Automatic annotation (TrEMBL), chain A:
<feature type="transmembrane region" description="Helical">
    <location>
        <begin position="50"/>
        <end position="73"/>
    </location>
</feature>
<feature type="transmembrane region" description="Helical">
    <location>
        <begin position="145"/>
        <end position="164"/>
    </location>
</feature>
<keyword id="KW-0812">Transmembrane</keyword>
<feature type="transmembrane region" description="Helical">
    <location>
        <begin position="118"/>
        <end position="138"/>
    </location>
</feature>
<keyword id="KW-0472">Membrane</keyword>
<feature type="transmembrane region" description="Helical">
    <location>
        <begin position="170"/>
        <end position="190"/>
    </location>
</feature>
<protein>
    <submittedName>
        <fullName>Uncharacterized protein</fullName>
    </submittedName>
</protein>
<feature type="transmembrane region" description="Helical">
    <location>
        <begin position="85"/>
        <end position="106"/>
    </location>
</feature>
<feature type="transmembrane region" description="Helical">
    <location>
        <begin position="21"/>
        <end position="44"/>
    </location>
</feature>
UniProtKB/TrEMBL annotation, chain B:
<dbReference type="Pfam" id="PF13601">
    <property type="entry name" value="HTH_34"/>
</dbReference>
<feature type="domain" description="Winged helix DNA-binding">
    <location>
        <begin position="16"/>
        <end position="96"/>
    </location>
</feature>
<dbReference type="InterPro" id="IPR027395">
    <property type="entry name" value="WH_DNA-bd_dom"/>
</dbReference>
<dbReference type="InterPro" id="IPR036390">
    <property type="entry name" value="WH_DNA-bd_sf"/>
</dbReference>
<protein>
    <submittedName>
        <fullName>Helix-turn-helix domain-containing protein</fullName>
    </submittedName>
</protein>
<dbReference type="InterPro" id="IPR036388">
    <property type="entry name" value="WH-like_DNA-bd_sf"/>
</dbReference>
Amino acid sequence: MLLALIRGQQQRAREATEPSGGLLFGVWGLAWLAGYLVLFLGWMPAAGTPAGWAFFVFAGLLAAAMVFTGIHIGRRSAGVRGDSAVTGTLYGWSWAVSFAAVFLILTGVARAGATVEVMSVLANSLCCLVVAALYMAGGVIWREWRMFALGAWIALISGAAAMAGAPAGYLVMAVAGGGGMLLAAAADLVNRRRERSRAAVVPG
Amino acid sequence: MSVLELDPVIHAQARLRVVATLASLAAGDRIAFPKLQKLLQMTPGNLSTHLRKLEDAGYVVLDKTFEGRSPATFIALTSRGRYAFEAYTSALEQLLKGTQ
């Protein structure tokens, strides 16, 4: 009984102080799946680019996922200070700095005279490379092999999407990218259930 | 192993829950008093009493600081406290094995 009490309390404490990987993977998986699908369906063959409204919906979905992530992490980490807060802050800044660099690079490449097709392939590849590398880094920091594997998977499929070109690449991103994240979310859910029942079953 | 060998500071159920909660944080982390109180669902007075006992035993440190202008207290497990908690849980596990 005492051991169950200890494990139950620790489980509760972790759920109140640590962000839920499964929840975040799920939200981003849905945003990617729907967003890239919209880019694929909004493709205009004559213009060689998705329609403006498709980009608008895509950006809106990603922004919504970003806001959700910020609120979720903010709520969970509120009231906890120390080493892990420092790690989290630095990790957050690496996202901001990396995406600022991506924006500058894309602006530079466009100015250098890149075509619409080059820009669309490069923009997606660079963004996904940052996501992939930082997921892998996060996996290393928090010893979360699922997060690391997801990062590695995103790196591979964004390479494949670049090879496939537009609009097929968007379909690759939607199904394999968004789908991969949803799979990771499902795995996390199953794992959490198992942990919870283990905490409840312990005798004594 | 007998029950008498279990650490009396932690063996009180309320303090065991306090220490278990603090031990679930990463080493080097501290938690704000209101958040700890909410996690444990204890009254402030009750929690303060238990924290004082744990502090006297050298198991926790209370860091009194300011958040803007309002005073705030952050609580962390000391390495001694973490060791005591681990020793306590492994003693419990041994006990359970003995009864099976």
